[in-house]
TrEMBL record:
PANTHER family: DIHYDROOROTASE-RELATED, IMIDAZOLONEPROPIONASE AND RELATED AMIDOHYDROLASES. It comes from Lactococcus fujiensis JCM 16395. Gene3D superfamilies: Metal-dependent hydrolases, Urease, subunit C, domain 1. Zn(2+) 1 binds at residues 45, 47, 139, 255. The record marks 141 as: Transition state stabilizer. NCBIfam families: EF_0837 (TIGR03583), PRK09237.1 (NF006689). It holds the Pfam family TatD_DNase. This is Uncharacterized protein. The keyword Metal-binding applies.
Length: 363
């Protein structure tokens, strides 16, 4: 990432020019003076199947109106429900992809893995094969309220399916059982742990306030840490301690659904990025965490980069000096004077004006 002035052109949905001065004629021009420009932001953990009751939202409310060009729904739907989701998702302006829940019904109820008859490998594989342009990975939620008495078994089933399907896997962590070390012991390089900096007792910090040795070992062998902020899963002190021990997240995502978007503490991806900026992550490291790293993690070959021939997905944003009260998932409030604000974005060259959800609070 550099701070030079650049001009960029998009033609037929793809980036056709990146440089200092574009000589051609454009049908539409956007003067983004004073804004930063990056490849389109990718939020790799959201919930945007509007027909659900528990965790739902509308793709464009999380996506293009917030400067986010691609959202990945993380396990709202499973083998039985993902086709209905796809029908709605393809109508959105935002690019929408899905991680398929290994439980056939997805998150209709909180305990989708309490009854393992809902996990059928043959049906799952058939659906993955049928919808390989939409399903970019798998999701398994490994916490007390989800798994019932099944212990680590659902994760073992997810790992087996992952190997057969040759797709990346996102693992949600939270309250025990299972114990966090049991989960981390099953994980390989490339597996994505979401809710990595949650403030729960089954989180990554031990009683001594330091990152647990097994979590550090998993990180060092290539397990990826994803924020997945959510209503309950981001804690300033945990994120700060990890940062101080050089355990930085790989990807920044929100776990947005309608309630934590409208009422906080999540609001949007820009606000989540602002929190990490406040922790100490430099902007130059943060932007790849919502562009090239999630693109590489979830297999988007033409996204996450500003290159001729890449998808014409661009995000424009500003770094503004204003006092913002940031709230984590445990109600801790910290004040920053530097906020990342979305200005606009393009999806395949179509331009959208963007704003932060927090602006709604001022009105
Ligand atoms: Zn989630």
């Amino acid at each position: 990432m550099n701070h030079e002035t650049i001009e960029l052109a998009i033609s037929e949905g793809k980036i056709s020019f990146v440089g200092n001065h574009y000589e051609g004629q454009a049908k539409k021009e956007v003067d983004a003076k004073g804004a930063f420009l990056s490849a389109g932001w990718i939020d790799s953990h959201v919930h945007c199947f509007q027909d659900l009751d528990l965790y739902y939202d509308y793709p464009d409310q999380i996506g293009v109106t917030k400067g986010v060009t691609t959202v990945i729904d993380a396990g709202s739907t499973g083998e039985n429900t993902i086709k209905d989701f796809y029908k709605l998702a393809k109508e959105a302006e935002t690019n929408v992809y899905a991680l398929m829940n290994i439980s056939k019904e997805g998150i209709i109820r909180q305990d989708e893995l309490a009854d393992l008859r809902k996990v059928n490998e043959i049906l799952n594989l058939a659906r993955i094969h049928e919808m390989k342009n939409f399903i970019v990975g798998l999701k398994v939620r490994m916490s007390k309220s989800v798994i019932g008495d099944n212990g680590i078994t659902p994760l073992k089933m997810a790992k087996e399916l992952q190997q057969r399907a040759e797709l990346p896997l996102m693992i949600h962590i939270g309250s025990n059982p299972p114990e966090l070390n049991e989960i981390f012991n099953e994980l390989d390089a490339g597996d994505v742990v979401t809710h990595c900096f949650n403030g729960k007792s089954n989180g990554i910090l031990g009683d001594d306030g330091k990152v647990k040795a097994f979590a550090k070992a998993a990180y060092e062998r290539g397990v990826r840490f994803d924020i997945g902020h959510g209503t309950d899963s981001f804690n300033f002190a945990v994120a700060r301690e990890a940062f101080n021990e050089n355990i930085k997240c790989h990807t920044v995502s929100t776990d947005t659904y309608i309630r934590n978007r409208k009422n906080g503490p999540v609001y949007d991806l820009a606000t989540t990025l602002t929190k990490l900026l406040h922790i100490g992550y430099p902007l130059e490291e943060l932007i790849p965490m919502v562009t090239e790293v999630p693109a590489q993690t979830w297999g988007f070959k033409n996204k996450g980069k500003l290159e001729v021939g890449a998808d014409g997905d661009i995000s424009l944003f500003k770094l503004v000096n204003e006092e913002v009260h940031l709230v984590d998932s445990n109600g801790n409030v910290e004040v920053t004077n530097e906020a990342i604000i979305p200005v606009g974005c393009t999806v395949a060259g179509k331009y959208f004006t963007s704003f932060t959800e927090r602006e709604g609070l001022k009105k």
